[in-house]
Structures are given as structure tokens and as C-alpha cells.
Design brief:
The longest helix has 17 residues, at 203-219. The protein is an alpha+beta fold. The chain is built from 10 helices and 22 strands. It has 2 domains: 6-219, 2-Layer Sandwich (PmbA/TldD fold), CATH 3.30.2290; 223-442, no CATH class. The protein has helices at residues 6-19, 75-90, 115-118, 122-136, 203-219, 238-252, 255-259, 321-327, 351-355, 406-411; strands at residues 24-40, 43-61, 64-70, 142-160, 165-183, 186-187, 191-197, 230-236, 281-283, 306-310, 313-314, 342-344, 361-364, 366-371, 377-383, 386-388, 394-396, 400-405, 413-416, 421-423, 427-429, 432-440.
């Protein structure tokens, strides 16, 4: 990290913008260092390192918005950034509802910063990458096409005209891989996975576990055959839960989408059933197991766990300063109007109970397709998936088309798994069994 006083630089930029006549100002100052060890085709091949300082200024002038980002911290360049933002605001359309949040009580914390991880050097990072690569390729049939282990350390400071002062430091280790398996003439589909941690403790074990699990998942798809065609129950893995259920839910819970009357879950649906009573969803930015954990949002508003859907009933929407002002709703700490760290609460069904039935059940490992938020219709390919048969066995299936409707799926949840898993480091969710999905085999 450089010796630059990030807070002092941000305060100076704020002062310059106010002095130049801006009505409202927000400054976001960030400093980040990164090291990455990459691998390709089963070998370490790339080491990179870098550091960057970014300053973003957002100004409101006569109800018009101007925003500029710069990597320079010199006095002259700060002044130039202010003038550029004001010039952009001159040509922006007016919006009388533009606003910035007022100051709120903020308690600095260091939960995302780990001194041991901050001290990890390039040699230590390389050892972790080697361990991950060994776990991925323990079976010689596995081909590691691409992947990396990366280290980040950073600092952020957000300030605005109304007294917002939010600051945080963090460390983060991330890992990701894309693999396939080859056995003679048979080649599986590619699969990928990601993970991460804000702390160094336990990382070696997690990296190894994640690597072996991804390899096991891919190896389990050897011998894939066509699936059965039917309309009925499918089992969504945690990753598929995120792709098919959480992504469109995020859209419909946006305060702006409610304002623009594009959401099917408007204020009139609050405290009414929008899903099966088995579904409970919250956003939990305090969950450090998820990459989106953060003490405040991009407007500097403190975050906290927020119940979104409780036992199938809509609890609240996601609001930023603009949507909250327009709609007369309280801020929720969601400047981007998206989830920080979505959590689906587990239910009571075992995996055996979820996969046993009188008819076949397709377990969707990964969904590659489209979900239309407005209509809720979705269709796409279930990849690296398995068909569970009534006799209790399962077999891998080739890429299989599935189709359904998001709104219907919410109501057609049959059971929720008793164990939650972290999907790609971003979502915590259990398996979810849904009825009424069309499955079309080749």
C-alpha cells in the first residue's frame, strides 16, 4: 500500500467540488493491491501483481448528475476531475429527485481484514495455487483448462456533503477453476467453481476440499446418456437456485423496478404470499463466508441483515437513496439495488428425501439459459446434471433442456434441503425441489 492518506485526499476532492458550486457531492476513494497466480492446462503459467488507487466523484448541480473517475491524486488532476463532472452535469437531463443519503451512525470494524492474510507473500500464494492444482488434478483424467488463486488487500473511504464518512479495509483470497475430464475418446462438459475467504485460517483445507469436489463433480458425468422427457419435479442445486430463483427475485425486489411498475411484487404484495411457505430469503452482508459481505453500501450507508421473503411472504424491497426518496421508504443499504450476500434458509428434507420419488427427478447442477424477469419465463440447458430414478439410483445425463416460469416455480416448491452450501463464494443456499418444470431430452 502507498503512503497516500486516502481519507484526506477524498476530503480534499469533496472540498474542491463544493467550492466549485456543486449542490451535492459524493466521493469514493479506493486503494487496492493484487497478486495472482494463474494456471492453464494443468501447469502454473502466470504470476501478476498490481496496485491501483481510484477516486470517483459524483456531483449534483441544479438537479443534474455528473460523475467522473480518476486514478491521479495530484491537486491539478483533482481540480480537473471536479470541472469535468460539473461539465457533464450541464448536459445531463434534470431530475428533481436526485439525492444523497444523510449521515448515519457508523461503527468502523475490521471484520474483513486479516493481518495473517495481509502478510501472505508471493511464495505463500504460489504454494496455495499448487495445492489447489493438485486437488483438482489428483485424478489423471481431469484436465485443468484454466484457473487462478488471487490475493487482494484494499481500503475504501466514502464521504458526502451530508456527513457520510464510511471507511473499511479488507483482505481477500479467491480461487477459481475451469476443468473437464477425458477418458479415451470420452470427454465431459466443462464445469467451473469459485471460492474465497477474507481470512487465511482454514484456507488450505477449503481450497483442497473445493478442488476435489469440483473434480468429483466432473468425473461423475462420465457415461452421460439422454435424460427422460417429462413435466414434473426437478431438484435445483444451490448454484441453480441462485441462477433460476434468486436472480429474477432480485429484479422484482428492486425499489426502482417497483417505482417504474416493472416489478410483479409491488408494495401491494407486502406481507402477502409470493412463494411457497417453505421459502425464506434474506440478504446478509455480515456473512463473511460470502464475497459480498460489507459493512456499508456504495453510498456509505451501513448494511445489516434484511429479511426479504419470510415463509413465502414478501417482507421488504431493496432501496437506495434515490428509490427511497421517490417511494417514501426507508433506506436498506442497497445502493446498487442488488443483493450483497443472499441467503436461502435451509428446510428439513434430507438429500435422500429430495431425490426419491415415484418418477424420475432431474438434479440441475448448473443452468445455462435465459430468465425473462418481466414474464418470469425461463428456458435453457441443465449442465453436468444427473437423473435420479425411482429405484434410488442416479445416472449422469447429457445437456438437457428445461423450461418453466419463475413465478410458478416460487409457488411450486415441494421441499427445501436441510443443509446449506455456498455456491461460487457468493450465495448460501440449500437444494430446492420444484414441481411443474418441463424437461426435454434430446
Amino acid at each position: 500500500m502507498s503512503d497516500l492518506d486516502l481519507a484526506a485526499t477524498a476530503e480534499r476532492l469533496l472540498e474542491l467540488a463544493q467550492g466549485a458550486g456543486a449542490d451535492e457531492v459524493q466521493v469514493r476513494a479506493e486503494r487496492e493491491s493484487e497478486r495472482k497466480i494463474g494456471f492453464e492446462r494443468g501447469e502454473l503459467h502466470l504470476a501478476s501483481a498490481g496496485a491501483e488507487t481510484r477516486l470517483s466523484i459524483r456531483i449534483h448541480k441544479d438537479h443534474r448528475l455528473g460523475a467522473v473517475q480518476t486514478n491521479s491524486t495530484s491537486e491539478a488532476d483533482l481540480r480537473e476531475a471536479v470541472q469535468a463532472a460539473l461539465e457533464l452535469a450541464r448536459f445531463a437531463p434534470p431530475d428533481e429527485h436526485l439525492t444523497m443519503p444523510a449521515a448515519r451512525a457508523f461503527r468502523p470494524n475490521t471484520r474483513r481484514f486479516d493481518p495473517a492474510l495481509a502478510a501472505l507473500d508471493a511464495a505463500g500464494l504460489t504454494k496455495l495455487a499448487e495445492r489447489y492444482l493438485r486437488a483438482l488434478s489428483a485424478d489423471p483424467r481431469v484436465s485443468v483448462d484454466d484457473g487462478s488463486v488471487s490475493w487482494e488487500s484494499g481500503e475504501i473511504f466514502i464521504a458526502n456533503t451530508y456527513g457520510i464518512r464510511a471507511t473499511d479495509t479488507w483482505t481477500h483470497l479467491g480461487w477459481t477453476a475451469l476443468i473437464e475430464a477425458i477418458d479415451g475418446d470420452e470427454v465431459t462438459s466443462f464445469d467451473y467453481a469459485s471460492g474465497g475467504s477474507f481470512a487465511l485460517g482454514g484456507v488450505e483445507e477449503r481450497i483442497e476440499t473445493d478442488g476435489r469436489r469440483l473434480a468429483t463433480d466432473v468425473l461423475s458425468t462420465f457415461g452421460a446418456a439422454p435424460a427422460a422427457s417429462y413435466k414434473g419435479r426437478v431438484l435445483l442445486t444451490p448454484r441453480a437456485v441462485a441462477e433460476i430463483l434468486l436472480e429474477p427475485l432480485e429484479f422484482h425486489l428492486s425499489g426502482l423496478q417497483v417505482l417504474y411498475e416493472k416489478s410483479s411484487f409491488g408494495d401491494d404484495r407486502r406481507d402477502t404470499a409470493i412463494a411457497s411457505s417453505l421459502l425464506t430469503v434474506r440478504d446478509d452482508p455480515s456473512d463473511l463466508a460470502l464475497a459480498g459481505a460489507t459493512p456499508f453500501d456504495d453510498e456509505g450507508v451501513p448494511t445489516q441483515p434484511v429479511d426479504l421473503v419470510r415463509a413465502g411472504r414478501l417482507v421488504t424491497h431493496l432501496e437506495n437513496a434515490y428509490s427511497a426518496k421517490r417511494r417514501g421508504r426507508p433506506l436498506t443499504g442497497h445502493a446498487g439495488l442488488d443483493f450483497h450476500a443472499a441467503v436461502v434458509e435451509p428446510g428439513f428434507a434430507s438429500l435422500d428425501e429430495l431425490t426419491r420419488g415415484e418418477k424420475p427427478i432431474l438434479a440441475v447442477h448448473r443452468f445455462s439459459g435465459n430468465v425473462t424477469p418481466s414474464s418470469g419465463d425461463f428456458s435453457g440447458i441443465a449442465k453436468s446434471s444427473h437423473l435420479h430414478l425411482p429405484d434410488g439410483t442416479r445416472r449422469p445425463v447429457r445437456e438437457t433442456m428445461i423450461a418453466g416460469n419463475f413465478f410458478d416455480a416460487l409457488q411450486a416448491i415441494v421441499a427445501v434441503g436441510e443443509v446449506s452450501e455456498i455456491a461460487d463464494g457468493t450465495v448460501r443456499a440449500p437444494h430446492v425441489l420444484i414441481d411443474g418444470i418441463s424437461v426435454t431430452s434430446e
